[in-house]
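Narrative progress, year one. The postdoctoral researcher (J.K.) led the effort to move from monomer predictions toward full complexes, under supervision of the PI. The following entry was the first complex the group processed end to end, covering 832 residues in total.
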Amino acid sequence: MSVDEVGRWSSRVGSRVFRRFVETRELMLLVLIVAIIVGMSLASPVFLSLANFHAIAIGMAPTVIIAVGMTVLLVSGGFDLSVGSVLALASTVTALLLLSGASIPLAILGALALGAVIGLANGIVVTRIGVNPLVATLGSMSIARGIALVLTEGFSLINLPPAFGWAGRAEILGVPFLLWTALALVVVFDLAMRHGSFFRQLYYIGSNEKAARLSGLAVDRVRTLAYMLSGLLAALAGVLLASRLMSGTPTAGNALELQVLAAAVIGGASLRGGEGTVLGAFLGVVFVALINNAMTMLAVSIYWQMIVTGAVLVVAVALDMLVRRRDD
Amino acid sequence: MAAPLLELSGITKWYGTTRALGDVDFDLRQGEVHALVGENGAGKSTLLAILSGVVAPDKGTINIDGRAVTINEPSKAQALGISTVFQELSLAGALTVAENVFVGRAPTACGIIRWSELRRRTQQILSAFGIEIDVDRPVDRLPAGTRQLVEIAKALSLDARILLLDEPTSALTSNEVAALFAIIARLKSRGMGIVYVSHHMAEVFRIADRVTVLRDGERMTTRAVAETSIDDVVRAMVGRKLEIFTAEATLVQGPVALAVRGNGAEGKSRHLELEIRFGEVVGLAGLMGSRRSELARSLVGLRQPSGGTAIEVKGRPTRLRGLRDAMARGIAYVPDDRKAEGLFLSMSVTDNFVVTALRSFARLGWIERAAATAAAGRAVERFRIRVPSLEAAAGKLSGGNQQKLMLSKWLASDPAIVVIDEPTRGVDVEAKGEIHKEIRRLAAAGEAVLLISSDLPELFAISDRIVVMREGQIVGDLPTPSATEEIVMALASGTGHKLEGEAA
């Protein structure tokens, strides 16, 4: 093999490896996450501490839970702007039920049912009536937030029964229960999206809805269930948040829907539907959370964090577009 | 004699290795309607596309008033006085008639549209040709036929001298056709030259002065309508030698699998009766507007059957509640548009294959990948689908292989009755032959097949019977050996042949 050939061979392998790297979004994110952790450990003594990781984990758990539902929806070609409001509503409704004397399981079930019902309503309005998901969930975002504020007149509800705080405080093997819950959901739904016959249908629907219909899939029913799942998971996140804060907060989760969308898209989901994985969305959330944490550690202003998150989102998607265009 | 308004000579156009047009001559005089006819794929659309500046010819010259011109862009065609009314209308539905007629050219003052002037000018054009439409109506609210007239008014507002009409009557009722013909007559008397592309022989012989027949991209003949007959024209259209692989007639035919009974639409005494038996391939022929796709879609539950008709599945009157209902009864529908309706282009070959039978590959809701991959592998082998790997995206396959994948995917659900719409459009010859064999094999295995195709040789090659539709009714039902392309074309275009099919 001549030098020339070796050069060509190595550059070909190099570009193939690079492409594979960019194409497998999970791998790319994993490498970037490790890079941030290594870099920050060198730059800040506080970063690599149990307390800091604990804070990151607890802070991002609700976002991860919501990102699971959002990814399922994105794959089916839909999306849900109401998740932040549903989180707030679920947190206040749980608190209200508890304060009115309901038992803890009943209060939790009530909030979860409400989230599922809002998701069902979103699903019906989108699939049966044909309202654009942006408009439909923009509406329910406003309605859910409004109800939460009306119910509480804008104040947080406190003095919840101490036992309710268990989920927010508990740790199993040194890891917060909140994170265990989020991780369990990630694993279950990631596998279900890869191998489950029900959830596989979402990829077909998102990739070509017309063909999916003509292939005999129950398109409307499946999409409606995806909206229900998104509402249910947002409500679950709200209940867990209420438990951690020991209050029902009507203003919680403001602009959370955009953070979740950004994380899912960074993780490889597409607004056009048909692609994305729960694992990717999870890594997207972790990545964004780490960047924000790193900037806090480095004493960068919170306002700068928004700018960086936005830039990361656009760069990730632009990179993806460039790779695809070269493929075609 | 003055130079003709428009003269094409030696026009040749290749798409890759396929010749769409070969050395075609064509001319158009002032005040003349010149019809352009031919089967699907004969080159009519390509010729129109060349004249309207959408594609450029590889060879040949175009003269207007005896001067050579190049039409390399649609705007150039407009500047030369050529206006085209394509089959797919290009109107903005939410805007008014006036805005559509003057799209992009509305009279303005300081950048503000002068609405009254716009209305006045539109009204002027419309009344000059005896078209009565409210110019303030959004186009969406007009009936299909009236929309066609708006499209023509748009062409006229460009001061066109040459008007190209592509199947202008395919969506019109007979009253609307009469109105259109009156307008065409008026345009003729003003010296406009009109190229009229149509499948309907009766219309061509009513409105045209001359007719040119294209076949396989070549001009067969140009004749004055007065000096020729429908029979001659149809013969020129289909006269090719057929490369028929003749199907062995199925010996044993089973009971009736799928049937349509009753009369067609709205009180008109329309005949619509069709039976498909297990073990046979029934070919459904018909021109554009014959409503045969509508019939097919009602057979698979995708639309309500038209008034007065009932569908029978396996001898029992059945109301199909939707495609899923039809599938549950063992009916599969293979649509004609593989990219838009058939395949998931970004997903893998295996994913595409298993979609119709997801549940049968799953245990406790879990898809067994290995089983799915193995089944997809067997289908790829059986249908000889050439794929880089089973994990390759369906969008990367060639047209013929995509088509085979689509067919295999529906057969994966193990249907007893298969309705196939245009199975070989845009598919190479070899894949075509394989698809034909596969369809015959279905019938041999006892399944009932309804094949819809615009490709007559294809229908002849693989059908046991050929059923002809025109304007929503069945006008012929012939055993393949006793049919000829001439008979089928004559029935389909309604040229007065009253041939009673034995079975009808």
